[in-house]
Amino acid sequence: MEILWVLAAVAMLGVVLLPFLRRGRGVIEQVPPGHPDAADPADYGFVREEELDVRMPGPDQDLLDVLDLVQRTQDYRAAAQLLAGTETEGELRWQRVQAFAGAAALELQQRPGGVHETPGGQWLRVWRAEAPKDPGGAAVHAEFLVQQAWRTATPGTDEFRIIMEEARESCGQAALLAPGDPVPYIAELAVARGLGYSQGEFEQLWLKILDRAPAHMGAHLAALHYWCEKWHGSRELATRFAEAAAARAPRGSLLAAMPLFAVFEHLPEVNLVRGFYQSEVVTKAIHGALHAVHSARPDDPMLAHVRHLLVFFLVRSERWAEAMEQLVHIDGHVGALPWILSPDPAAEFAVYRALAVAGYEANGGSPATLPH
Fold first, then answer.
1. pTM for the full model?
2. How far apart are CA 260 and CA 113, in angstroms?
């Protein structure tokens, strides 16, 4: 799956020292480490940049343990057992399917194989060969093909279309093995985007997901891409989709944060208005996401995704204390938007974290005043 961006200067007081917002999703420059005005995130117990985990948005120790075992032994059975014991309709299954598929794709990229070398990700091929009726293996293979298309080919080319057509077929096979599982259909959302399904075809696919998991946040985020301006929709269609999801969100659902993701997907490439991130549209979306975070279950697998995006917007809005509150919950993991769009997600996250700390201290905050 594609891992998907304001020329403006933001005047900050004291230790913040003019970080520059160069593009809508670009880099923020900060005072260099060791500068006498640079605040130290370590004072707050935050993880060192080189120790930040770029694989996931938040902790899932069971997944990490199984991934380590599978990659070390090249034996798929632990992965099959973990997915078999993961709730079908929940967010966690989709995240774990993505993680296994991504691990196999990365292995293959690192070791493409040759005359005297076995290609990486061989455990997934063995899984499909030895357990062709296993719905978990089928779902991982379908998502693997989707990720391979986005990683190795250019949309619109014959190579891309061939891989995507194979992925669509694999999604259908996985769906037949687990009729009530929304995951194969969620994987197909990326196929629909890549192959350019008509809006009617996309709506039919979307209804299959809503029938199985109407409040699935991961599915809504995947569908949002299709409706975005850069793909097959527009800013208006994406906003309408996100606001409709938020409006029908059940109590405690993170779907109330969807409008913030829609705003992020349509950030202006160049923004000359200093107050853009304090604008009514952005402020309203932030408030919706904050409400969703405060209402959600503490163990909701999608909670970290929303917190990460909130850090991005809260820092750019100069809402330092609120940004610090989110950082306390997510620090240590950076495998989420917006950081994954950077060539160095850990470094990008560390810059925003340092700015949050600096802004917090510039306004009288300290480690002693930060609630944990």
1. 0.87
2. 42
